[in-house]
Amino acid sequence: MVQIPPRPWPTGTPEKPEPLVTRVLAPNPSPYTFTGTQTYLVGEGADRAVIDPGPDEAEHLDAILAAAGDARISAILCTHTHRDHSPGAAPLAERTGAPVMGCAKLVIADNGPRLDESFDTTYEPERVLSDGEAVSGEGWTLRAIHTPGHTSNHLCFALEESGALFTGDHVMGWSTSVIVPPDGDMGDYLESLDKLYSREDRVYYPAHGAPVEKPRQLVRSMLGHRRQRERQILKVLADGPRSLPEFIPIMYKGLDPRLEKAAQMSVHAHLIHLERRAMVNRSGERWTAL
User: Fold this and answer.
1) Which position among 47, 52, 84, 201 bears the catalytic label?
2) Residue 169 catalytic?
3) CA distance 61 to 231
4) Is 101 strand, coil or helix?
5) First vs last Cα of the chain: how many Å apart?
6) What pLDDT was estimated at residue 195?
7) Helix (H) / strand (E) containing 142
8) Model pLDDT for residues 41-78, shown as the tens digit of each residue
9) pTM of the prediction?
10) Which site from 87, 173, 192, 234 is most exposed, i.e. has the minimal number of CB atoms within 10 Å?
């Protein structure tokens, strides 16, 4: 199990992993957000793009504006609409006049109990970016990469001038992404990982955790991890039908109890993906191998 590093964390303090990128950590640590959501400012000229403004916390919005300094914020981009990513977009737009853009608004008829951060229903983009569409400013160009799976509306953003990719929650160095049906889809997630593996990005900047310096190596490992989880599930089912809770003590040894429901949702996403491929079947609350 991954441990959250000890405090102090650089919450609210601008950090520059490279000349065109400034990172500001939001004050929202949790077992699902690690040390908090990382907001990125892109640019070093007259204007900046802000990626994932994070929660609607005055302290964090002040830190973003302080990091921008005299530069104008010209675009506010969101990778997806979980509540640790996009609620800060509207108040930041009010304070700067910058348009909110990026992922589409997500409307779910039955949100239900969620284990990771739930969806932000206040998000209203002025512009939805399609796959391959770009936004630019002085000395920077960000191109949207459609990467559904963690959520159906998830985008990554490629910084063309430096070869960096802002991966939101799709790829993180500290943890695998939580896939929560019905909006989260394991098949889409695996296809999106394949899509990133085919690219030649130099570094990933995730919304949580450290930069990923060897992106393709990590993506290959993540694909292998998901295949190994499928094999585990089929091995468990070889001993007979199981309900979701029964998988967890077998597959996740020493798991933090706070993450048990998230683990169940991940197994559920795998089971749905296996069911679509006619490898498992469900009857009520129990699953069986075919």
Assistant:
1) 84
2) no
3) 44
4) strand
5) 32
6) 98
7) strand 140-146
8) 999 999 999 999 999 999 999 999 999 999 999 999 99
9) 0.94
10) 234
